[in-house]
Amino acid sequence: PDGDIIDCVLSHKQPAFDHPELRGQRPLDPPERRPKGHHHRSSTTHRAEESFQLWSTNDEFCPEGTIPMRRTTETDFLRASSFTRFGKKKTIRPIRRDSSTSNNVHEHAVGYVTGQEFYGAKASINVWSPRVTNPFEFSLSQMWVIAGSFGDDLNTIEAGWQVSPELYGDSFARFFTYWTSDAYQATGCYNLLCSGFVQTNNRIALGAAISPTSSYNGGQFDISLLIWK
Predict the structure, then answer these.
(1) Per the domain annotation, does 80 fall within a domain?
(2) Residue 57 belongs to what domain range?
(3) Measuring CA to CA, how many Å separate 227 from each of 49, 146, 176?
(4) pLDDT one-digit tens code per residue, 5-63
(5) pTM score, two decimals?
């Protein structure tokens, strides 16, 4: 329904293992014990536990031992400013997310916690599909775990939903991940568009459209994200 082609790729053949430090390895099974947390369900908010993406609305998933990958097309590459920058954020000086100074680059609202050491974070994010005014704008809601300063040593792990016509060619709200270890300069990318991020789940496709989404005076839908060490 969203025009995507989802390929089921053998887990050890995913782009992560093109990285020199991971080449020849195989993905480990996800840990059996996940951090315990509080579970709250409201009467007006719904969570789709098994199927929250358009490609799997008919309960179609990839077999065990494989992962779903959204197929990248020639059109996707042509929308990018350059081949080398495809799937990457623009290399601008990172803006402190706890700062009100945006220099007209980002309009954002943020809640944040600072401290010495954190071993995990969890967020439930309401999912919308906002309209952006031109193909080069985007809108997102995400959880953002960072280390380092806001200089060249910035490390981030990011996950959430985004509407990005430039990246995906449409205005669907899509589940995404992002990472960088050098402030978005040479490392990192969205989803599985470069080596580094290892996926183990066979039911969720990074970059795939989320359905349903929230509506004004209507149903509210969210996704829950957990990052832990």
Answers:
(1) yes
(2) 1-25+45-91+117-229
(3) 17, 12, 14
(4) 999 999 989 998 887 777 777 776 555 566 776 555 544 444 445 568 999 888 889 99
(5) 0.85
